[in-house]
Amino acid sequence: MDRRTYTFLLLSAAFFFLYMSIRAQVVPPENVEENAVAEVADEDQPSDGDLDSTSQSDSSPGELSSEANDDETAIASTEGSDQWFTIGSMDPASKHQLLITLRNRGGAIERIEVTKRDSEGALAYRRVDTQTGYLGYFAGTAASKVDGVRVNVVGPGTPAAMAKSDQGNTGIKVGDIIVAVGPTAIQTPADLRDSLSKTEPGDTVTVEILRETGPDQSPTNLVFKANLSQHPLDLVRLARDGGADQIDGNISRLSCLMTLAQVGGKRIPSGERYLKPLGEPSNQFWTASVNTADDGRQTIELETTIGSAAMGEIGGEPVRLKRSFTVSPSTYIVDMDFEVANLGSQPQDLAYRLEGANGITLEGWWYSTKISPNFSGAAARDIVYRTTADGHQLISGATLLKDERSEPEDPFHGIFASDSSDSQKDLKYIGVDAQYFAVSYLPEADESSLSGFSRAEAMIVANESAVEKHKEKAVNVSFYLNSENVRVAPGEAFKQSVRMYAGPKEPELLASHGLGDFVYYGWFSMFSSILSGLLHVLHSVVGNYALAIILLTVIVRGAMFPLSRNAAVNAQKMQELAPEMKKISEKYKDDMEGRLKAQQALQKRVGFNPLAGCLPMFLQLPIFMGLYRALSVDIELRQKPFWSPTGWASNLAAPDQFMYWGDNMIDFIAGRGTGWLGPYLNILPIVVVILFITQQKLFMPPATDEQTAMTQKMMTFMTLFMGLFFFRVPAGLCLYFIASSLWGIGERLLVKKTLPSGKHFNLDDDGDVVDALSVKKKPDGKQSLAERLVNQMQQKQPEPVPTRPNKRKRPPNRKK
């Protein structure tokens, strides 16, 4: 392995080690009873098993919850039936790019699925952590009267909604009870997931359901046939639905919750999520209705009332909260409107709190190469924002966790407060950032800032004590915004609007919404942008990103061939000088200064510059690092296969995942985040290491002494050790390393043939330098002036230090 590649490996490994060593911790709000593992955020919030007792409403999406309490002395809708609603669609004909599931308990978002289609009709962004077939999201709960899973929601355009029965019925409906999928009987939501674990997209399965047709009639048994699809990317989801990438400690909590932040002089206390008399906002029931416009826009309107019994405890009068979510076809934007109305008889000073999204996809957190513009590093989920004063900022999820563990009494990370300057409160955007996707609040289309907010803080949505070591980067994070305090007259209301972007980190798309800084290439962004653009051009020609990466590597290495050739020539000179340098070392082994001067004199005599081999390496480093970052960040590589979409290396943005071995290896080796290698055996990184060692063995000069031999052994050992760090490198990066190494081997072999014939230095029988290759003997056998100078410098020895002669007594004269 040449010095260029070796230095690149060292830099990459050093960065990766620093990245993996970041530790951080945070605690959930101390006054909220939260389950640490895959449960809903509050102890009053039903778990999977508890939902059954409150989920038997027959209301379908679009109907109002009938459980609202009209008595303004109480909090409206504190009891009732859980209902789920959807806006958007998975149906390609609708052209919607999002399918959003909301729940009336909490009046907020439970799930966002990205349903955009590509030019061939396939999902543009699917889940990459599973290859199983997708039937639909049901928010399923165990049925109470029979064995089965109750269907609480069916998204439009999902395979479940498009299924056909033998009796001519179309679509599984809300309220149906799934009792079997294929030959597998279904009793719990886990059974439903397991029944699909052996399926693939495109498979047809039979789904047996029980459907109630009337209050006095027995349920009808129906059998549907459903054509399974790929899993759409669930960009936002509850922690309990996180799949294999979920970690202990993350909490299931609805996204974009709303509650009152201030009533008169009473504010939400520092470090808490809500005013205690009003209760946990995720337990507040809202009435809901869904409307569809002629242009395909869908809006859900939600409303709840907080009566005098609760408001009186904090010195207020009844208040009504309204909010709406609107999605339009062909966009990732969700328009949100908020209204706070005073139902009392006196003016009130009111403000509301709006939480951000949480539960953003964790895909690949144990191998992702996300980096941060800050020295604090990045996690799988980070809070990002921009203000006029601070510019673009990233708050790592790992940092939030660390801060909460160190200061549990203050679990929130301040962004700005009511007493901050205007430039600090001039908020351009704020959101949650993942490797390839983001969910961010934006100002309205005709506004430049998110005005009307007096406070912003970041937080974790996790039980910090349950988050294991080495899994901190997967912690769940979110934020909140407090609106400015507004005096509202009786019977009046104040309103505010915010847009939310929920979609992929496509550079051009983000830039169109003012979110261009979400894509961060690092220090070599200029090179990354150029190389990324070239990669896309090559893909448009060859139609395969794996082949495009190989061609890009060839183009880059070919353009740098002159520099590489000079480096190879310099290495050849160094190898030829090795015996003479060894002699100098032996001669001056106890005189370091003399040895250095003698070596420099020798290099000067023969015209050898040791720095000439380093210059190409430094010139190539920005290009190599830029290409490395381009391949790490580019979302276009996500879910693009090496060859087959369903076979090995089906996602170039992830390790090739040749074989799952997580169940057969110890956690230290195969754990997600805790293991050195990860839960999959990967083939491409092994090929990379083999090629690195091959380069090293082929082109490293033979050892001339024990010290050099030991150094070479250490380099071989370090190359193997680097394989541990590169074992989880995405397949696209491995292809780059493989192509680059093969080019390097071929290049060095070619350079050897293109070097001038003979040696670069003429040596005598003892290996001493006689003259440079350019110095020729005269025909008459006499030496040239250059040759005589070389020989004179070679033969010149340091003058001996004068010593005092021995004084011996002259023997006395002897007489003859």
Defining key terms:
28% helix, 816 residues, Membrane protein insertase YidC, nine-stranded antiparallel sheet, Membr_insert_YidC_N, alpha+beta, membrane, 4 domains, chaperone, Beta-galactosidase, Chain A, domain 5, seven-stranded antiparallel sheet, Pdz3 Domain
* CATH topology name of the largest domain: Beta-galactosidase, Chain A, domain 5
The CATH class name of the largest domain reads Mainly Beta
From the alpha carbons, calculate the radius of gyration and give it in angstroms: 35 Å
- Beta content comes to 15-25%
Provide the CATH architecture of the largest domain. Distorted Sandwich
Concise summary:
With 816 residues, this protein is of the alpha+beta class. Helix content is 28%, strand content 21%.
Walkthrough of the structure:
- With 816 residues, this protein is of the alpha+beta class.
- The chain has 4 domains: 3-12 and 526-754, no CATH class; 13-45 and 251-520, Beta-galactosidase, Chain A, domain 5; 51-69 and 82-96 and 110-245, Pdz3 Domain (Roll), CATH 2.30.42; 761-795, no CATH class.
- Helices cover 28% and strands 21% of the residues.
- It contains 17 helices and 31 strands.
- Strands 14-15-16-17-27-23-22-19-20 form a 9-stranded antiparallel sheet.
- Helix 9 runs parallel beside helix 16.
- The protein is globular, with a radius of gyration of 35 Å.
- Residues 1-74 and 772-790 have low confidence and may be disordered.
